[in-house]
Amino acid sequence: MEIVCPAWYPGVDKLIEAIPVLADQGVTALEIGLNAPEYFDYRNGADLGRLLDALSSSGVRVHSIHAPFGVQVDISSLDDSVHERGVDSLIESIELASVIDADKVIVHASERVDGERSRRMDRARGVLREMGIVAAESGIVLALENLPPGYLGHTPEEIISLLDRTDRGSVAVCFDSGHANMSGHFIEYASALLPLSVAMHLHDNDGTADQHAFPGTGNIDWPAFAATYRVLECKATPIIECKLPEGMIWSQAFQKLRTALGE
Where does the pLDDT of residue 157 fall: very low under 50, low under 70, confident under 90, or very high at 90 and above? Predict the structure, then answer.
């Protein structure tokens, strides 16, 4: 089972500098986030060229792109300018994924929602329907992430509603363990969402905040999760979305997770 890691490393200032370090620790696949242009400016042709060279020389591939997120690129926003920036950033993410041979783009349905929830659900759903068509043209799958409480797509019911009338071959789910744990119904959420998932963001917390702790250091019941994962014959790619404990390297982290999942 291949396990994906985030495309960053402590103390490294640029993405291309992190890649050889990660490769030396047994990393074969990355998820690249697009929220930090100072780390990787995906709009800069020279930066993109250096990334492709670094990937080629290291033997590391890009599994997924995490589309930009935040209040300025919220696809559910009722502010047309914000909404359009969100759509544009998602199109750019799909285009980048196509260029670097990633086949998944992780997407958030919203930032924190204080009101107009129904209208914002409609707006986000419309974007997913349209962008699913765009993604399908490049053979890319959009993976909608379940988010913390207060955001669109926290519950399985909202995720399923957001997926309504999308192309289910090109729009699926990224199951986020930490966000599900904040619901107080972790196994129920996992059972509902794993069958729809093509990727999993795996990290831990104590149930009160999105702490992105290493699996096993919070209160998630990982043996129960592993049993659910196996019973459902889940095929979603695991992505460890957190920093490693002091002194641990990625090859050790991968082995710990494989053991936890019974692989």
Answer: very high
Q: Is 149 helix (H, G, I), strand (E, B) or coil?
A: coil
DSSP string of 28-76, one letter each residue: -EEEEE-S-TTT--TT-HHHHHHHHHHHHHHT-EEEEEE---SGGG-TT
Give 260's contacts (C-beta < 8 A, 6+ positions apart): 215, 216, 222, 223, 226
pLDDT at 59: 97
Domain 68-260 in CATH: superfamily? Divalent-metal-dependent TIM barrel enzymes (3.20.20.150)
pLDDT, average across residues 133-154: 98
Q: Which two tokens stand for residue 112?
A: 């924190």
Alpha-carbon distances, residue 91 vs 18, 63, 174, 219, 234 (angstroms): 26, 18, 18, 37, 28
What is the pLDDT averaged over residues 145-170? 97
Q: Is the pLDDT of residue 130 over 90?
A: yes
Task: Give CA–CA dist 27/44, Å, rounded.
Answer: 25
Distance CA 63, CA 41 (A): 18
- H helix or E strand, kind and range, residue 163: none
| The pLDDT value given to residue 195 | 98
Domain boundaries, the chain: 68-260
Cα–Cα distance measured from residue 142 to residue 255, given in angstroms and rounded to the nearest whole number: 28
Does position 263 have pLDDT exceeding 80, yes or no?
no
CB 69 within 8 A of CB 29: no
